[in-house]
Amino acid sequence: MIKRLLAKRSVVWCFGLMACLAGSLLPAYAAAPQGETHLITMKAVNLPSGQLAYQMLAYKIKSKDGEIRDVTDRYEQVPTVPGPTIILTEGDVAEVTLEHGIKGSKLPVSIHVHGVHYKIEDDGTIKAMNKKVDSAAFPGKPYTYHWEAAPGTAGTWPYHDHTFGNPRLGSEDKGLYGAVIVNPKSGKVPALIDGKIVDVNLSDVKREFVLWMHETTFWGAEINHLLDGRQIPLWSNPTVGARLGELIRFHVIGIGTAFHTFHLHGHRWLEQGTKNVVDAVNIGPISRQSFVVKAGEGVGPGAWQYHCHVLQHMQSGMMGVFRVVE
Amino acid sequence: MIKRLLAKRSVVWCFGLMACLAGSLLPAYAAAPQGETHLITMKAVNLPSGQLAYQMLAYKIKSKDGEIRDVTDRYEQVPTVPGPTIILTEGDVAEVTLEHGIKGSKLPVSIHVHGVHYKIEDDGTIKAMNKKVDSAAFPGKPYTYHWEAAPGTAGTWPYHDHTFGNPRLGSEDKGLYGAVIVNPKSGKVPALIDGKIVDVNLSDVKREFVLWMHETTFWGAEINHLLDGRQIPLWSNPTVGARLGELIRFHVIGIGTAFHTFHLHGHRWLEQGTKNVVDAVNIGPISRQSFVVKAGEGVGPGAWQYHCHVLQHMQSGMMGVFRVVE
Amino acid sequence: MIKRLLAKRSVVWCFGLMACLAGSLLPAYAAAPQGETHLITMKAVNLPSGQLAYQMLAYKIKSKDGEIRDVTDRYEQVPTVPGPTIILTEGDVAEVTLEHGIKGSKLPVSIHVHGVHYKIEDDGTIKAMNKKVDSAAFPGKPYTYHWEAAPGTAGTWPYHDHTFGNPRLGSEDKGLYGAVIVNPKSGKVPALIDGKIVDVNLSDVKREFVLWMHETTFWGAEINHLLDGRQIPLWSNPTVGARLGELIRFHVIGIGTAFHTFHLHGHRWLEQGTKNVVDAVNIGPISRQSFVVKAGEGVGPGAWQYHCHVLQHMQSGMMGVFRVVE
């Protein structure tokens, strides 16, 4: 534990030094961040519904120059499904502390993150699996994870519990999941806009919708850039909205056991990492699809349905609306 | 309704004018077509099998110069599963009128199309969903859909009912589905030919096979370009045929609830939109794969099986033959 | 049979002639190889577990100059699940003889291969399917398959039985499957290394892990290039290992009926044939994913879990460890 704290301190200490020797003294995965440092505290708690959920308690961002700004109020001060979306840029690091707030259980709860760099201590698994440490919070004993959004990790990644329950493989299916969006250093992503493949500036995106596909339900959240990145919990099968012509970014992620096909009416997009123009994509558990559309492009305003195209899921109500207004 | 008819008339009127002001007077999604106008009438009917099916009644194509040619006889004058394939080119528009011919039911039946541009009135959903109109045919009251194969919509897209049945989400699983192929304006698609990735001229493709994967059965149709685009219904798990060396285009589309892997013996192709060389691809409901092969390339003539590689589906007889002859 | 033997002999005879007229006398799929000829004998047998398995009996490689080297001892002299991995390079050919060693059954057993070129006689299916021949071994009657790893066939391909059992569609689900890796002539594959997309020399890859995803179990094998390509059977849900910084190639292949999402902790890679950076991919039966990672890149040593991310599969124990040590 002391070793962990020391490691943490030395990284922090580096921030103020332009000529930090991190490169020679520390392994690559612990180098000083080239971007911002995200200091995050979350808590895993019970919901009245019987689900479990992550709650944002505190979120501060430290710039390279050491300036700190508190962005906690971007988040609702309640637990949500999906959990809070964490937005990084290539070069950023995050220190995420998790508190155990699940009543009636002493089982460890964790955050296992995808995509970004982290050491085995930060794997979010139990010691029996990672051979090193119970990488999880216990009642009264928070746990801090160190992540590095290194170059090459741009993308939309899930995080989720990997220790709670019996067997101790995690309770992601109970609601303990959320997304980490790592934006590319370039600030641009390819998209199909006005019928052409172009690079879109992410700073021009007005809203982002995170939609999780879990068995027969969508669970959603909005990140509203017109409101300084405010995150709006949308819960199940939500109506999401946009003004005609706005650039909108969708992040669709699977979780649980079922396979899905995500379809959005009246819109089409570039399948991630390819030149394939689609309006429906296969989504398996933890597979994902991030894409930008121009709201109502070529089709105008309307209550455009999005739904799973697996017939049984659709008939179980796995649908929502993308409302485009003038 | 009058508004709809007027909109239609103004578009038609534009066709004869070279200096049509459509660009400034009409929204982008109602601009004068840069290509041909497809005037199509179909009917949704019962089959003796208990399935439902679309039937082609009339198909006329109006050129930019206003010349009309009747291509109805490209289609069998009977209802088929899958429904008639509609073939457009980027820049074309289609006016598709659907008649309700399902005996014993007054429930609305519709055509919801993927990929192309259309207004919310043409969504093929009920008013409770699209908040505008019952976008569907009722007994004695046909409904006309306006589609625009705008630039950037090239691809193989499904169309299907989205209103029949209870709940009114559609009866695609009963047989009410078909394909729209939007060919790129360039006339070319990438393909793996003689071991190299090249651009193939679609005008060199001799036959196209549309194969739908529905639960444990393939449902197919052939478009034969040696017979001026004649469409040949193939029904279930068909044998399809080609001469050695012919360029053949497959369109594989999923529907219903099951996930599949489409495999074709002895041939390999470029996974759509990528450089991935495959001979088996994941197909979920409404996900799709369009590709060109040279029949028998490097392997010669033979009764080459195609089948779902999900073992249970294969054992249920989800197989057909791609017969390549000299 | 005589015809087959003659064809075989004429091909062999060609090897010693620089000015072989194969191009004009033989169809393309029987041309003289531009690379090496792999002479392989395998046997399909029963395992005490009730499974069936392929066993390597003999493996010789003949160079273009006619030199022969025996590489049989790269393989364990026992039947394994998955079966022996066969490694070719674009331009190579293989003659694979299969013996029938399944006790208590006279049903034919075969090898149906994916990806490479072969004639319909080498399809590994029964005559009722391929309309030509029972392309399979019977008790006392081995069968020889001719494969050509022609240009454009680079990739990781499954082979499996396609005739045993009732119906005679194959017993791949009983253990009769293995992989053919066709390496590109260029010797290079794209990979995400140190956060950048680069071309990796396959000669720099130290170990390859072949992991089959079958219902709720991984079945694996290692190809160790530090031990001259020795193949090490790993059986079910194995721990695989690497030294920090080594280039490691994974080949993940589905089989059977279930769909999976393959996830590896702490690492990310390029989805095959795309620029999509992933750490989880959809794997259906016979769909596959081949990729290179730098062991522990940016994350250091550790017991990094790999597992199916379908929750029910994970909870059924569909997990293993990628152990990275310094």
SSE topology:
The structure is a homotrimer.
Chain A: H1 2-14, H2 22-25, E1 37-46, E2 52-62, E3 68-70, E4 86-89, E5 93-101, E6 112-113, H3 127-130, E7 143-148, E8 155-160, E9 177-183, E10 188-193, E11 196-201, E12 205-214, E13 217-224, E14 230-236, E15 239-243, E16 247-255, E17 260-264, E18 269-270, E19 277-278, E20 280-283, E21 288-294, E22 302-308, H4 311-315, E23 319-325
Parallel strand pairs in A: 1-5, 4-9, 12-16, 15-23
Antiparallel strand pairs in A: 1-2, 2-3, 5-7, 6-8, 8-9, 10-11, 12-13, 13-14, 16-21, 17-20, 17-22, 18-19, 22-23
3D architecture notes:
Three copies of one chain form a homotrimer. Chain A is mainly β. Chain A has four helices and 23 strands. Chain A has helices spanning 2-14, 22-25, 127-130, 311-315, and strands spanning 37-46, 52-62, 68-70, 86-89, 93-101, 112-113, 143-148, 155-160, 177-183, 188-193, 196-201, 205-214, 217-224, 230-236, 239-243, 247-255, 260-264, 269-270, 277-278, 280-283, 288-294, 302-308, 319-325. In chain A, the strands form six sheets. In chain A, strands 3-2-1-5-7 form a five-stranded mixed β-sheet, with no helix packed on it. Chain A has a five-stranded mixed β-sheet with strand order 14-13-12-16-21, with no helix packed on it. A five-stranded mixed β-sheet of chain A has the order 15-23-22-17-20. In chain A, β2 (52-62) and β3 (68-70) form a beta hairpin. The N and C termini of chain A lie far apart (56 Å). The A-B interface holds A 192, 194-196, 259-261, 263, 265-266, 268, 271, 274-282, 298-305, 309-312, 314-315, 321 and B 27-29, 112, 114-115, 117-120, 123, 125, 129-132, 148, 150-155, 157, 167, 169, 172-173, 254, 256-257, 259, 272-274, 282, 284-288.
